[in-house]
Amino acid sequence: MRRIAIALAVALAAPSSAMAAGRTLAPPGNSGVGQYVETVPTAGGGQPTNTVHPVGGAVGGGGGPRDPGGPAGTGGAHGVGTISAATQRALAAQGPTGIAAAALAEATAPSKARSSARAHASGPDPSAASASAAERTSPAPAGGGSSPASSVLKAFSGSTGGGGLGPLLPIALIGSVLAAAVLALVRRRRPS
Amino acid sequence: MRLRLLVIAVVLLGLGAGARDARALGLTLGFSADPALTGATPAATDTWIPRAVAEGAQIVRVNLTWSEVAPLDLPPSSFDAADPASRAYDWSAIDASVRDLTSRGLQVLLNITGAPAWAQGPDAPPDVAPGTWRPDPTQFADFATAAALRYDGRFPDPLHPGAFLPRVRYWQPWNEPNLSYYLTPQWTQSAHGWAPASPTIYRQLLNAFYRAVKRVAASNFVVTAGTAPYGDPPGGQRMPPVAFDRSLFCLRDNARLTPVSCPDPPHLDALSHHPYAIYGPLWHALNPGDAAVPDMYKIADVLHAAVRAGHVQPAGPKQLWVTEISWDSSPPDPDGVPIAKQADWLEQAMYVLWREGVSTVLWLQIVDAPPIPNYGSTYQAGLYYIGGGAKPAAQAFRFPFVTQRSGAARIEAWGRSPANGNVAIEQRRGSRWVLLRTLPARVDQVFTATLPVRGYSMLRAQIGGQTSLDWTQRG
User: Fold this and answer.
1) Is residue B378 a contact partner of residue A64, using CB atoms and an 8 Å limit?
2) Residue B44: what pLDDT?
3) Closest approach of chain B CAs to the CA of A112, in angstroms?
4) CA B144 – CA B213 distance, rounded (Å)
5) Residues B215-249: tens digit of each pLDDT
6) Residues A177 and B267 sit within 8 Å (Cβ to Cβ)
7) Element (H, E) at B416
8) Residue of B nearest to A85 (CA)
9) How confident is the model at residue A81 (pLDDT cuts 50, 70, 90)?
10) Which of A35, A52, A179 is the closest to B2 by Cβ?
């Protein structure tokens, strides 16, 4: 039951993800490779992350066999943020429930906690720290944001660039509500 | 009653993405552009290429950076960019890699990226990555022609008079074109908001490249650039791979993938994706436009819709490839996954990808990279440590074997055989291994079986003296 509740909570958080700001998770062991971080859903708004090109650098997210000399980008860290890396690993060891719990904690953390955790996670690597700072302060591009109402509408209609059911889902939901209301009215008027 | 049916229908629509049926018994394995295999030093290639062969690899991806082979400055008017013998080109490093790999029986996938400055579009912003800004499709086609002619099997080997450079059949134009790290711009802004730009730029590059290499040899095989797994919202540096593919194939961004006008649809033989995962091979990407291992169906769905709409040329079914995937291990990377888990994830990923229709999987590297400048920005996903010791992942790569419960008293077993013969699937009972099933298998081919197994169980497969890792099937 607890698993279902956690999964449901994560699922409910997911629709806002396309609008999300920049909490990111990296594949294990590759916190400095900005190309492959995943943006975690938050309520932070509609600006994109700047984890690939740290502001002021030519090419960020560097490193790895394809670019061994490249500068390290920020890219988040595996499990950085609200809960410590050790706790994240311990949760991950619990299987899907633990992983879902970690993702949920990251996704729903207060922004203040997230930003202080991010600053802490920057650690001694100056390039990562500066990139992290750049990420915090980088403005949203014009047109990249959206109003809360349109965000909700897009999330429901699946028109966020990521797929979904399109207009079918809101139509079906509204239809369901109307049908339920009509059914209730009919039952109330029917003589018992 | 009707209301209930409606609710059920809505729920079913929401859960519409299920597992895909497997389509073929073949699964080609290889390595991506690991420097140890592609010319870091002769000593390294002498060590690691034979090991790659021994591990069952069939193909290795080789990076061919256009700007490193081509002249740095704008070439003179006498320069024929389509001539592989032009003195302005320096192919020596690629020649060596192709020689080394093919002489040991490996196929080569040449992955061409990085335009020289003179082949980029005008008005490049100062902060874009070098070689990424609107590469010129005509120049790219000329370079592709030169490369395809050099490796068509009939070009004289400059180091060995009387011999010819080996034939290369597999070609991959560009890398991760949904990242501004490799291709810019990703988006363009107008009064109506952000519009995708990179899919159109890439479609032009892909089609120019396809026509060029097919003109040299019709049997050349073109694999699209693998897309990176995660994207950002519109205007960001990374386009979600599913959105990128939809736009590439001129499909409307809706659930039905409605075709829109596509005057010159993408030309390809296989579509590639790089499903790096944040966690294990069963972990789905959180965002609908992203695609980790179990989300390959999203990529496949777009491809199938494009094929149905006639938005892929030439007509007919296309292959699905994964040209990069890996997980770093601990040791040596302190933030990697434990070595036993890395092995489990590797073989389970192969199974999941195969089920979703993938026919070729390239693991990122055979040997760990040195942690320079640090572990976080380098890859330690090798099957071997730098010192040469094998990780459990080596055995998992050579002989992957996994099971999955399909009923209370039934499991599905899956593996890829490292040899011809009869594969024995065994179950551990106490301290003994008991034979459950024997079935014929062919080297590098997939075998499957449905077995009566209830509850927790330890299983393995054996063939010709080779044994898979033990696989734990939970109850």
Assistant:
1) yes
2) 87
3) 22
4) 6
5) 999 999 999 999 999 999 999 999 999 999 999 99
6) no
7) strand B410-416
8) B335
9) very low
10) A179
Residue B308 CB burial class (10 angstroms; 0-12, 13-18, ≥19): exposed
**Residues of chain A neighbouring B130 (CB-CB closer than 8 A):** 58-59
Instruction: Name the residue among A19, A99, A175 with its Cβ closest to that of B233.
Output: A19
ipTM rounded to 2 decimals: 0.83
* Structure tokens belonging to residue B49: 């290429």
- Specify whether the CB–CB gap between B27 and B446 falls below 8 A: yes
Distance CA B185, CA A174 (A): 39
Nearest-CB residue to A28 (from B229, B233, B336):
B336
- Cα angle for residues A30, A35, A41 (degrees, 5° grid): 90
Instruction: Give the pLDDT of residue A92.
Output: 66
Within its chain, how far is the Cα of B461 from the centroid?
Answer: 27
DSSP state of B365: -
| Residue B197: pLDDT over 60 | yes
Q: Give B371 to chain A, closest Cα distance, Å.
A: 9
Q: How many Å apart are CA A77 and CA B278, to the nearest integer?
A: 11
Three-state SS string over B433-445 comes to: EEEEEEEEECCCE
pLDDT digits 0-9 by tens, B175-187 = 999 999 999 999 9
> Are B444 and B416 a contacting pair, CB within 8 Å?
yes
Which residues on neighbouring strands pair with residue B416, listed in sequence order? B446
d(CA B19, CA B36): 36
Cβ atoms of A101 and A6 within 8 Å: the answer is: yes
Instruction: Compute the Cα dihedral for B435, B54, B33, B98 and give only its sign.
Output: negative
A61 contacts in chain B (CB < 8 Å)? 181
Structure tokens at B269: 């033989």
The amino acid that residue B381 corresponds to is A
Check: CB of residue B325 under 8 Å from CB of residue B276: yes
pTM: 0.75
Q: How far apart (Å, rounded) are the C-alpha atoms in residues B462 and B459?
A: 10
- Can you name the residues that pair with B410 across neighbouring β-strands? B407
- Distance, in Å, from the CA atom of B91 to the CA atom of B27, rounded to the nearest integer, reads 31
